[in-house]
Amino acid sequence: QSVLTQPPSASGSPGQSVTISCTGTSSDVGAYNYVSWYQQHAGKAPKLLIYEVTKRPSGVPDRFSASKSGNTASLTVSGLLSEDEADYYCSSYVGGNKRVFGGGTKLTVL
Amino acid sequence: EVQLVESGGGLVQPGGSLRLSCTASEFTFSHYGMNWVRQAPGKGLEWLSYIETSGGGIDYGDSVKGRFTVSRDNAKNLLYLQMNSLRAEDTALYYCARDRWPYYSDYWGQGILVTVSS
């Protein structure tokens, strides 16, 4: 399976908003509304941020929002905090019981 | 709180085998599908395998299909990953993760390191 394409890095100042893209194909992101996003702080396990394209689990701040258009999904972090500095990964269902991850985006809070 | 603890990692020679375990607690293990995901040093996440609640539905990523086998023992709350014909490129931190429908993981273990080297 192909890896979903994410920008390697993104950055923003505290209080600003940053959007991270996740580009797939008509066989994965474009075919299903089953995109999820994960946050991974250095040395830690990934943490679920978003599922089913736009849904936030309880406990995830509403500063995190997401959307999808065609073959590209996006994660927006609003009101950046220093604690948001982490790696972010998208994932998509690709059929059967298979999933695929994006290459990851390192978010730096300036 | 849901807990997932991986074990069984370590150093293995190329061509060798290793079996990882994931011990689940604080939830009804038999009610959830499970995933294995790995992360090579300094690299991104790679989905490896999925097993459904009863063990009947299984799938693998292309890079491990035919070499890795996932299984589970619901009576013991254990998930396994049997890894054969290991290669240097299998060196990674291996995570087990609880699966939720539709197709996302809501809880992850802390990971266990597997190093394939002579």
Structure, described:
The complex is a heterodimer of chains A (110) and B (118). Chain A is an all-beta fold and 110 residues long. Helices cover 0% and strands 46% of the residues of chain A. In chain A, strands 1, 3, 4, 7, 8 and 9 form a six-stranded mixed β-sheet that branches. In chain A, strands 2-6-5 form a three-stranded antiparallel β-sheet, with no helix packed on it. The model of chain A has no long low-confidence stretch (mean pLDDT 96). Chain B is an all-beta fold and 118 residues long. In chain B, the strands form two sheets. In chain B, strands 2, 4, 5, 6, 9, 10 and 11 form a seven-stranded mixed β-sheet that branches. Chain B has a four-stranded antiparallel β-sheet with strand order 1-3-8-7, with no helix packed on it. Helices cover 0% and strands 53% of the residues of chain B. Chain B is globular. At the A-B interface, strand 3, strand 7 and strand 8 of A face strand 5, strand 9 and strand 10 of B.
Overall number of strands of chain B: 11
- Can you count the helices of chain B? 0
Helix content of chain B: under 10%
The assigned structural class of chain B equals mainly beta
> How does the overall form of chain A come out from the CA principal axes?
globular
The count of DSSP E runs of length 2 or more, i.e. the number of strands of chain A, is 9
What does this entry show, briefly?
By secondary structure, chain A is mainly β.
Keyword list:
heterodimer, A: 110 residues, mainly beta, six-stranded mixed sheet, 9 strands, B: seven-stranded mixed sheet, four-stranded antiparallel sheet, 53% strand
Topology:
The complex is a heterodimer of chains A (110) and B (118).
Chain A: E1 9-12, E2 18-23, E3 35-40, E4 47-50, E5 64-69, E6 72-77, E7 86-95, E8 98-101, E9 105-109
Chain B: E1 3-7, E2 10-12, E3 18-25, E4 34-39, E5 45-51, E6 58-60, E7 68-73, E8 78-83, E9 92-100, E10 104-108, E11 112-116
Parallel strand pairs in B: 2-11
Antiparallel strand pairs in B: 1-3, 3-8, 4-5, 4-9, 5-6, 7-8, 9-10, 9-11
